[in-house]
Q: What sequence folds into this?
């Protein structure tokens, strides 16, 4: 204890780690109340690790946990130990930012205050924060997180341990997106006036206008798009509302317009995230897990470590399907081959052909058996799986082109260029008004004269139970019952256009992260190659 | 500053419920007696009648009609007396009196219910707040 504290500064009162510091706890339990060290304490120059991690290197006790994390989990060999003896220090050798998507985790694993959160610096003390355990929505992984708040303000986001999903890590986007919650919020419903400006109105007027518009158009011209951050309850309400109005054109953004939700195995991670560790060969198609789901990437990396992922085009995929490619033999020899398909492919026109090629591969590689299901779909958005579970699939492919009335439930990324110019809009941003989405829909349904039969969260959940009971199966992973083997064969041809990137900027993928200042800094500094 | 109602004191404890009850009536009388002064100093002749103010005081008292603990009644009386003193001393301004006792808690936007007639409880709650 004395040796550890010898060179450790006595700045606990101004240290962000104070109150949750391992060294503080240890020295309170085992330390002496006075030191015998009389010489000058050493000091170390602070390192610049980017916009997320603040360093006070004098506090470092050289435990090298951050070095191990960066090398072994994040897979970036950025950090290392320099010097020897009392000159030993952690650093990047040359001035270099930490560009990993998981870099924020070094804040958690640092036992002292050497690596702390830059956006959280001097903002709050951990004992004045109230923790709320919840699930992350910035990607489709569903990382377990705890949101620490002081009063109404979110102060920080930290991970919770869940060995089946995120272990103890979360991505930087999850950890630092919270400042986006504080900016560009709508407080009142607004209606665009004749002069083209938005005017705040009260709910009674807003709902009356929307209900009137909805009755002016034909039922099949009504379209509903659920946003990528929507909750299952709201999506259920949206689908029920549109169905009651006579339209079945409702989907979730990111799912494309022609998804069939009949087979659950066609859109979930069938081998489970933890199960990926058992796989011994990976075929990644149209996906870049590093930016689409950084936590899953860490898991894959944990498994393969030395092997490298390759970018496949549709031609290569066809070659593998026809066993003309050398990778086919790797798949054939693998005991537990895992195929991971990116959800970016959902938007492609030749989706069916790609999936049937993948199913051919899965069949000959024996990837789907009783004890192992290696056919995985890596979704991009938090709401996608629940949307498909609830059957949010559009009736016709081109429904948006003939739409007159569009209900965008927090959907910001829909391509609206195709919508006819005379369409009547009802846009509702995701961060609207601090009112639960399902309540708005329930209220609108009553004003429009198609009253939905639920008034409470409990009632809407029992409605969900009749549609998709697996959603209410909390804390347990519900595997899909049927695999694609019962799916009808597709005879369509594949398009030779290469698979695009589904996520251009890891740090900005939804309305919250786009409003976030920290995420803007990250994309400016860390994406520069 | 002098307390105009210094003579009406709330002694520390009522021995029985009966005594507390008497004190409530004493307070009500004191309040009624000060109403003309209040009307005068706050210039309320145009906005309210003395009888309305009396019934407001009575309603405030009746709001706590279920309280049977003499100690609690004493405490409420003390607060009532404090409020009355503040008012008679002109420690408040005209809009305080109007806002609190003439217009009432609901404010000027009193919903007469014509618009929401036939609406479900859910919708009525929804227009008020998100938290229900």
A:
């Amino acid at each position: 204890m004395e040796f550890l504290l010898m060179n450790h500064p006595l700045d606990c009162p101004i240290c962000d780690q104070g109150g949750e510091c391992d060294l503080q706890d240890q020295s309170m339990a085992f330390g002496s109340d006075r030191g015998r060290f009389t010489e000058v304490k050493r000091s170390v120059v602070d390192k610049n690790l980017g916009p997320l991690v603040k360093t006070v290197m004098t506090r470092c006790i050289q435990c090298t946990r951050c070095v191990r994390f960066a090398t072994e989990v994040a897979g970036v060999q950025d950090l290392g130990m320099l010097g020897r003896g009392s000159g030993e220090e952690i650093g990047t050798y040359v001035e270099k930012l930490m560009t990993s998507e998981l870099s924020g985790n070094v804040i958690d694993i640092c036992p002292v205050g050497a690596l702390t959160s830059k956006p959280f610096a001097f903002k709050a003390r951990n004992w004045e924060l109230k923790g709320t355990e919840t699930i992350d929505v910035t990607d489709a992984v569903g990382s377990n997180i705890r949101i620490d708040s002081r009063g109404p303000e979110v102060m920080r986001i930290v991970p919770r341990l869940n060995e089946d999903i995120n272990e103890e890590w979360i991505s930087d986007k999850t950890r630092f997106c919270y400042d986006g919650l504080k900016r560009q919020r709508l407080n009142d419903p607004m209606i665009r006036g004749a002069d083209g400006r938005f005017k705040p109105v009260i709910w009674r007027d807003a709902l009356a206008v929307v209900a009137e518009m909805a009755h002016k158009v034909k039922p099949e011209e009504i379209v509903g798009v659920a946003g990528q951050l929507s909750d299952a309850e709201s999506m259920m309400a949206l689908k029920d509302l549109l169905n009651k109005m006579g339209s079945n054109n409702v989907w979730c953004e990111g799912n494309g317009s022609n998804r069939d939700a009949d087979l659950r195995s066609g859109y979930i991670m069938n081998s489970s995230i933890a199960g990926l560790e058992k796989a011994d060969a990976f075929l990644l198609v149209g996906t870049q897990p590093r930016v689409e789901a950084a936590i899953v990437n860490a898991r894959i990396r944990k498994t393969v470590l030395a092997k490298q992922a390759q970018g496949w085009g549709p031609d290569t995929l066809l070659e593998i399907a026809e066993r003309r490619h050398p990778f086919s033999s790797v798949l054939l020899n693998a005991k537990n081959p895992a195929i991971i398909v990116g959800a970016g492919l959902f938007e492609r026109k030749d989706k069916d052909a790609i999936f049937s090629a993948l199913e051919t591969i899965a069949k000959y590689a024996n990837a789907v058996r009783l004890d192992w299901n290696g056919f995985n779909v890596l979704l991009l958005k938090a709401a996608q799986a629940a949307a498909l579970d609830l059957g949010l699939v559009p009736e016709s492919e081109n429904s948006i082109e003939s739409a007159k009335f569009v209900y965008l439930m927090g959907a910001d990324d829909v391509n609206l260029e195709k919508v006819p110019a005379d369409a009547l809009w009802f846009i509702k941003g995701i961060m609207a008004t601090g009112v639960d989405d399902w309540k708005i829909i329930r209220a609108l349904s009553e004003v429009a004269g198609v009253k939905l039969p639920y008034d409470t969260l409990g009632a809407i959940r029992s409605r969900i139970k009749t549609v998709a009971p697996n959603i209410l199966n909390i804390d347990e992973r519900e595997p899909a019952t049927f695999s694609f083997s019962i799916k009808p064969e597709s005879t369509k041809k594949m398009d030779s256009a290469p698979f695009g990137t589904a996520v251009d900027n890891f740090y900005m993928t939804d309305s919250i992260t786009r409003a976030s200042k920290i995420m803007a800094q990250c994309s400016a500094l860390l994406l520069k190659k | 500053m002098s307390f105009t109602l210094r003579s009406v004191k709330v002694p520390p404890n009522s021995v029985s419920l009966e005594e507390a009850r008497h004190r409530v009536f004493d307070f009500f009388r004191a309040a009624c007696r000060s109403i003309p002064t209040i009307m005068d100093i706050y210039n309320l002749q145009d906005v309210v009648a003395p009888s309305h103010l009396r019934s407001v005081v009575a309603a405030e008292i009746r709001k706590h009609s279920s309280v049977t603990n003499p100690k609690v009644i004493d405490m409420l009386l003390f607060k009532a007396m404090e409020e009355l003193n503040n008012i008679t001393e002109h420690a408040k301004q005209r809009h305080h009196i109007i806002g609190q006792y003439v217009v009432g808690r609901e404010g000027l936007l009193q919903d007469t219910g014509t618009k929401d007639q036939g609406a479900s409880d859910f919708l009525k709650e929804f227009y008020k707040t998100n938290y229900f």
Q: What stands out?
A: Chain B has a mean pLDDT of 84. Residues 27 and 81 of chain B are 7 Å apart (CA to CA). Chain B has one domain: 17-128.
